[in-house]
Structure prediction request, 679 residues.
Amino acid sequence: MDYNFHWRPVFRSLPDLLNAGLVTLEVATLSMVFGVIIGIVFAIIRLNMRGPIRWFVISWIELARNTPALFQLFFFGFGLGAFGIHLTPFWIVLAGLTFNNAGYLAENFRGGFLAIPDTQMRAARSLGMNASQAYVRVIIPQVLRTVYHPMTNQMVWAVLMSSLGMLVGFRELSGETQFLASKTFRIFEYFAVAAVIYYVIVKIIIGSSRLLSFRLFRY
Amino acid sequence: MESTSIFFTSFKTTDLWFLAEAAYRTLLISGISISLGTALGLIFGWLLHEGRLISTFILSPFLDIFRSVPLIIQLVLAYNFAPIIGLNIDPFGSGAIVLTIYTTALVANVVRGGIDAVGIPMRRAARSLGMTYWQDMIYVVSPIGIRAVFPAWVGVALGVMKDSALVSVLGYVELLRASQILITRTQEPFLILALAGAFYFALSFPIARFSERLEKRWSQ
Amino acid sequence: MIEIRALHKYFDDVHVLRGIDLDVNKGEVLSIIGASGSGKSTLLYCINALEGIDEGRITVDGVEVHAKSTDINKLRQKLGMVFQQWNSFPHLTALENVALSPRIVRKMSRSDARELAARRLEHIGLGDKLNSYPNALSGGQQQRLAIARALAMEPSYMLFDETTSALDPELVGEVLDAMRLLAEEGMTMICVTHEMGFARDVSDRVAYIHDGTIEEIGTPEQIFGNPESERTSRFLANVR
Prediction:
């Protein structure tokens, strides 16, 4: 083995990498926020509605779950170009991740809604709440608890998936790593440090999710 | 990119062959990784379940790394690490190795869950009937455990099949990479992406549905 | 006053309610007895429109329950309901369970709602459980919590759907006591029940429902002491 590792340039650009790590966290978090909102709405539609809107929702969910995330990103990247829509790299990644998250989360939420007995809805309605009050105050808080663990997993997935940004020119952690690595040809060193940063980010997410669950679910 | 100077030509029937070949390569690399990864995952999952110190302090954290670092980073690292230790591995080789390890890490967890799903009372009952450890494993634990986690395993396998698209970063021309090449030449992104998407979907959707139905039937 | 006229209700092909006529006066306690599957719980659900109806009509204080123009959420505030499965909201404390709908439906301030809820819970003997989550309460306590929760809407009528049949025997008493207390305070109550003792001692009238129709209705003395219908006496002989 006559390869000499050069870590110094990597450590010198550590601030850049950490900043890019924040970009990763940011785009993953945003995609989760949108994904959760769309996922809840989709689950409710899939459970309660008929007709074309339901079919649109089911197609979205099944496409998100049965095609590669990279394919979904490419679709938002250059597939939309066929319709003259050109998104910036940030929006490609955000749209792709949101599309994917929403599909998986919708199914998690559907399971969550099915796990809440109908009688909870009846009890809420019997107290004079309208349907949306009952959903927001009674049903969804309970659903959030049952899907809390899958949601944490999905957040981890979102962070990992955001690394695909590298392939559509987005400078999140992987994209930034590739950019810096290609300037110095220290590819292995740069990506090794990026791997460590990803690992730490994932552990922080899992740890804080666990802490948060103690505060949120006292029952 | 190497394709900047190529002038655009429209989509031809030979391009369909090009895509089909690429689809075959997707199947090939995922098939190999899923089979090898599952075999290794069975062994590691059993080790995880047996829960000796080594597995809790070394094996488990080690496997955890592959689930906490993006696959694309793992691929780049492996591809660039090989020459460092004097190996010369082509994209297919590095891709298959990484995907196999990745599958192993995921399957090991599933297998551990499957063995754990068979309750201790059930296993005591088996042992009290005079079964040996391995008889208990083969006749009691495997049938029950497989039912419990088969859908999760299908999920892992389909996930690996979809994730194999990432091997394209190493230059391995699987389906998605092939469509990218065609898109740059033909400038027909929608048609070609739709074809590639349809292939993945046609493979994944029926299997996912089948496993869902199986899960429902087994849970009754 | 609740008026029910020529009420019919189907579940798909099953004719559950076959022409119910019934008046419930203010201040009255009416017990509804009958075998399971006779339609008595369905009748209760129809009164506050948790179930739709197919024929006939129900009016509460002159307002037609199932008319399209009726604001059902407003009407339901008049009709407190307690279920067989107590249905406490598991993610909220006892106090929050009771305070929730006064706050969001009656638009009370947060502090007023909490104060009202605390009063209601103390009234029903749960003053020391204000900050407990339902999973820390016994079935009987959860059922009393459900009563307090319904009362916090200050309803004019209370509907009880087999409130004690899911409880362990030793917990039935405390719930029946709470219902008795309510009856003494003059609440108008419709109780679907299997507790014949309660029906006899507390009700002003008892209705026996058989196969989706009211077989017999009258004072407890008449129903339990001297039933006119052959079916009524057979049913009573079986449950006692």
